[in-house]
Design a protein that fits this description.
The complex is a heterodimer of chains A (about 190) and B (about 425).
Chain A: H1 4-14, E1 23-25, E2 28-33, H2 39-48, E3 54-62, E4 70-78, E5 83-91, E6 97-99, H3 108-119, E7 122-124, H4 181-184
Parallel strand pairs in A: 2-5, 6-7
Antiparallel strand pairs in A: 1-2, 3-4, 4-5
Chain B: H1 11-17, E1 31-35, E2 47-53, E3 56-63, H2 71-76, H3 84-88, H4 95-110, H5 118-146, H6 150-171, E4 180-181, E5 184-185, H7 193-215, H8 219-225, H9 233-238, H10 244-247, H11 255-258, H12 279-303, H13 328-331, H14 335-346, E6 351-362, E7 365-376, E8 381-385, H15 387-392, H16 395-398, H17 404-414, H18 418-422
Antiparallel strand pairs in B: 1-2, 2-3, 4-5, 6-7, 7-8
Helix pairs in contact in B: 4-5, 5-6, 5-12, 5-17, 6-7, 7-12, 12-17
Classes of the chains: A alpha/beta (about 190), B alpha+beta (about 425).
């Protein structure tokens, strides 16, 4: 049975100019793909030749304030050889786009829609790049670091929100707080407020 | 008008055949049906847009997100331990299993995941397997109710009630347990708890037998589930299915065996797999998994270090003041403990920079946490790999070709939880 490090090395031998040296942390091997445009080639080879047939997860990181701003993280797994491998690639904020891997693993379809929905990273060639968790037409990307925890007002009618029930007559509290989420929740405030 | 022969075995052929010649005129009028977001068989708030030709589905589009709370954003703004109650609300039918999976992910980042005290590991495994039984009992009962067998639901809820009582005795809460802490568990088992679990193990297997008698050879249940929603091995892996849904297709991938965490390596249990990949196989796999869980719990009770009531005072937390809160009676009498308490409460457990992924075998599938840390008491990015979310993404591929009534069977056999899917 191959080890994750051996498989990572094999992948690197195939794309020597594209992939960084494997980094090991807590027993997990990570490879960084230098050019995000070629991530599909690496993924396709990893699936076809190295047996990484299960894409466990695809996540995105916002390195707010750094360039490149976006990091895409692919968690690969092979059912036959039971090895994990993590691929990472960076995308700049101006570009905010990279090719889709949904043709390699179909599970990437929803994962990429989620990354688009939450971070605003677009996937070129994706069959159906729509919002998935937020509603269609929502104007912001909530997992970005510059999006405040308290949220931002939108055009959405407040049908889902009700006024707090009055608590008069209770043993301890006689009126409910009229403060909004930002005043009530210290974590929701930005430092300058 | 001639009666059209419909083969119930081959859904693809059924979709391709189209209506009989006499009905050809009516072709082209496709109907779009909106199922959900609060249909009884969607078990929460899942909406499926279904396009139908007659009674045959030609296209299906699931719509998720009605329960989105932004858990990942919330996690970035609080300390590691403060996020544990939020994990209760992921798969709210197996709360302790979520607590354990999250704690293990953070412990992996801290590199203490293999240094946990043995008693803590055994308690966590018992809790995880109780959660699995509880989640499968509900999934099974609700599934049977969807396809017309109402009694099973009442039957399985009797046993689930007992499991909730165990949670209450152990954690103080029946539903939102928040039991684990980074580096251990919040409290040791109460007196007599393990003894009642042992008694429960004997009682619950009787309930399994009775439920099986009601379903496994029930003609109506078998007709509605066998050869319905067939998923091939390749398709299941391609869509990233995990848990009983993947094993129902014949792939023997179980994180507890493939990458044993806690004390699973010391325990003896089997991984049931299906052969056809239909709804019936997924039901059988869940049924057997519950029996295997009972087997695991029995072994844990035999082996648990410190015995039932911990006579030998085995620790349940790692002995590290920088990770686990000190004993309350020490806090106001000893300087070092006071400082530790203050730092842990205000700043959180100080984790090293780095990134880890940890996946645990939860009742619905592999619940994974990808943690990107830049050091300090809170994650820089925490991604939750929710098994229900991934499992539902296969619906557009398998629903076409089925009849409308099959949708209920297929959704029920997937046993998803929207709290986890939408996060």
């Amino acid at each position: 049975m191959p080890t994750p490090l051996e498989l990572a090395q094999q992948l690197r031998d195939k794309f020597p100019e594209l992939l960084s040296t494997p980094v090991e942390f807590r027993g997990e091997v990570t490879l960084t793909v230098g050019n995000s445009e070629r991530v599909v080639d690496v993924c396709r080879y990893a699936k076809a030749e190295l047996g990484f047939d299960l894409l466990l997860d695809l996540s995105s990181v916002d390195n707010y304030g750094d360039d490149p701003r976006w990091t895409l993280v692919y968690e690969l797994y092979g059912v036959a050889h039971a090895c994990h491998l993590r691929l990472k690639t960076n995308v700049s904020e101006e570009k905010s786009e990279l090719p889709t891997v949904s043709a390699v693993w179909r599970t990437a379809d929803w994962h990429e829609r989620e990354a688009y929905d939450m971070m605003g990273i677009r996937f070129a060639g994706h069959p159906d790049l729509r919002r998935i968790l937020m509603w269609e037409g929502y104007p912001y990307f909530p997992l970005r670091k510059d999006f405040p925890l308290a949220g931002k007002p939108t055009e959405l009618p407040e049908i889902a929100f009700t006024r707090p029930a009055p608590l008069e007559g209770g043993p301890f509290i006689t009126t409910t707080s009229v403060e909004g989420a930002v005043q009530r929740e210290p974590r929701a405030r930005t430092p300058e407020e | 008008m001639a009666v059209q022969e419909i083969s119930f075995k081959d859904t693809a052929a059924r979709a391709a055949a189209g209506p009989a010649d006499e009905l050809r005129d009516l072709e082209g009028d496709k109907m779009v049906l909106n199922m959900g977001p609060s249909h009884p068989s969607t078990h929460g708030v899942l909406r499926v847009l279904i396009e139908m030709d007659g009674e045959t589905i030609t296209k299906a589009m699931p719509d998720v997100g009605y329960l989105h709370r932004g858990d990942e954003k919330i996690a970035e703004n609080m300390t590691w331990n403060q996020f544990i109650p939020y994990t209760d609300r992921l798969d709210y039918l197996a709360t302790i299993a979520n607590n354990v999976a999250y704690s293990l992910a953070v412990e992996k980042l801290l590199c203490i995941h293999d240094k946990l005290p043995p008693r803590c590991q055994y308690i966590r495994v018992i809790c995880c397997e109780l959660a699995r039984i509880s989640a499968h009992l509900l999934g099974l009962g609700a599934y049977a109710m969807d396809v017309g067998a109402l009694t099973v639901f009442m039957h399985t809820f009797t046993e689930r009630e007992k499991i909730y009582n165990f949670y209450e005795a152990l954690t103080g809460a029946r539903f939102t347990t928040s039991y684990t802490r980074i580096g251990g568990v919040s409290r040791d088992t109460p007196a007599g708890w393990c003894e009642t679990i042992r008694k429960f193990c004997d009682e619950v297997v009787v309930n399994f037998d009775e439920s099986e008698k009601l379903l496994t050879r029930n003609r109506i249940f078998v007709d509605r589930t066998r050869d319905v929603g067939v998923i091939s091995k390749e398709l299941a892996i391609d869509y990233g299915l995990t848990g009983p849904n993947l094993r129902g297709c014949g792939v023997d991938y179980d994180v507890r065996k493939a990458h044993p965490y806690l004390c699973y390596a010391d325990l003896d249990f089997d991984i049931p797999v299906g052969s056809v990949g239909d709804c019936y196989d997924r039901y059988l796999v869940r049924m057997e998994e519950m029996r295997q869980s009972v087997r695991i719990i029995r072994q844990c009770l035999d082996k648990i270090p410190g015995g039932f009531d911990n006579q030998s005072k085995e620790p349940v937390n790692v002995a590290d003041g920088k990770i686990v809160l000190p004993r309350k009676d020490k806090v106001l009498t000893s300087m070092e403990e006071l400082i530790h308490q203050f730092m842990l409460v205000t700043e959180g457990v100080n984790c090293p920079p780095g990134e880890v992924y940890f996946g645990a075998e939860n009742p619905k599938g592999e619940l994974g946490f990808y943690i990107n840390s830049r050091g300090g008491g809170a994650p820089y990015r925490l991604k939750i790999r929710a098994p229900s979310f991934v499992n539902l993404s296969i619906l557009p591929a398998i629903l076409p070709g089925h009849l409308m009534s099959d949708v209920v069977s297929i959704l029920g056999s997937f046993d998803f939880v929207m709290g986890e899917c939408d996060r």
